[in-house]
Amino acid sequence: MSSFVFTVGADALALRWPDGSVSTCPYVWLRDNCPSVLHPQTRERMFDLLSIPPDPRPRHVALADGLLVVTWAGEEHVSRFPLDWLARHRPGTRPADPADIPRVPWKGDFRIPRHDAAAILSDDGALAAWMADLARSGLAIVGGVADEVGAGSALAERIGFLRRTNFGITFEVVSRPDPNNLAYTAEHLPLHTDLPNQEIPPGFQFLHCLANAAEGGESMFADGIAIAEDLRAADPEAFRLLCTVPIPFRFHDAEADIAVHRPVLTPDDAGGIREIRYNAHIAGTFDMPAQLMADYYRAYRAFMTRTRQDRFVLSLRLAPGDMVAFDNRRTLHGRGRFHPNTGFRHLHGCYVDRGEFESRLRLLARHRPA
Ligand code: OGA
Ligand code: ZN
């Protein structure tokens, strides 16, 4: 077995690890990350990059007691890097992240994972298992939620604080005489994501079913990533237009007027899909150049058509005590029309943003027994 070896190059230090892999550490990066520059309590960087020349060079490099010791030329400074820190931070690779749970696309035959409310409330392992399913699939149901307004949001708050919107910190989905939103009527709600008119649409959505006695009102879900990837494979030009052409989304009532232009699909750095904004009832009047419209409408219809196909869409009837949780920037949701004179239907909803969700995943991993 070979051991750890370093080589002093012109611009960078080359490190060869016992497994034969090599990492290249530019000197400016090493100097910027000298462990002595971190605040001892906050761990934030106190170093001012502009306090050194743009091209620092080592005068001497040595290995001592598991530390790589770099004495810098032209300044009175010595940096001591623990080898395990250098092994975890290899330029060109991202350090392992417990919040980075790969997404697994699903279709209309998906069996939605079920979790138990009491377990999630009392046990971090059950919370982590629910969150892992939500991260992977973007859809999970929690059963056994107490029959009280606030029981669903208490589960959401196990993940993180709630995202407030113009509809409140939580919202009541009931048919109202004075609706400001189609959700607050008894109408059919075609598959959509909520609040695509926001600069950052809410991350995870939680809908706790308190009553579902009316005829109709079944719930529908589809994986926006599965639909987008199917479209990419079948019609790359349509996919490209949905990724690149911003369209208007707007909500306005007496208190708010919240509007953005954004594409329907936003790719991520790895070539996957970061988020989907799809909501035909909040989309405004398309205002791209007229010569683009025929192609854009064709692409938009190709996406929309898939949201009506059984191969992508699953339906179910929420029962009182069920709470459905889903990634609102990935999973499309909708409901069938219901008949309010046949019984009461009441969902209590709230949101938690993706950042808070990921933070909880990292904290749970930190405390997980080895
Ligand atoms: C919503 C919504 C679904 C339902 O409130 O945004 O989509 O089942 N509701 O009523
Ligand atoms: Zn909705």
UniProtKB/TrEMBL annotation:
Residues 119-351 form the TauD/TfdA-like domain. Belongs to the gamma-BBH/TMLD family. GO terms for biological process: carnitine biosynthetic process. The keyword Transmembrane helix does not apply. Keywords: Dioxygenase, Iron, Metal-binding, Oxidoreductase. PANTHER family: GAMMA-BUTYROBETAINE HYDROXYLASE-RELATED, OXIDOREDUCTASE AIM17-RELATED. Pfam families: GBBH-like_N, TauD. One of its GO terms (molecular function) is metal ion binding. Residues 11-86 form the Gamma-butyrobetaine hydroxylase-like N-terminal domain. SUPFAM superfamilies: Clavaminate synthase-like. This is DUF971 domain-containing protein. Its cofactor is L-ascorbate; Fe(2+).
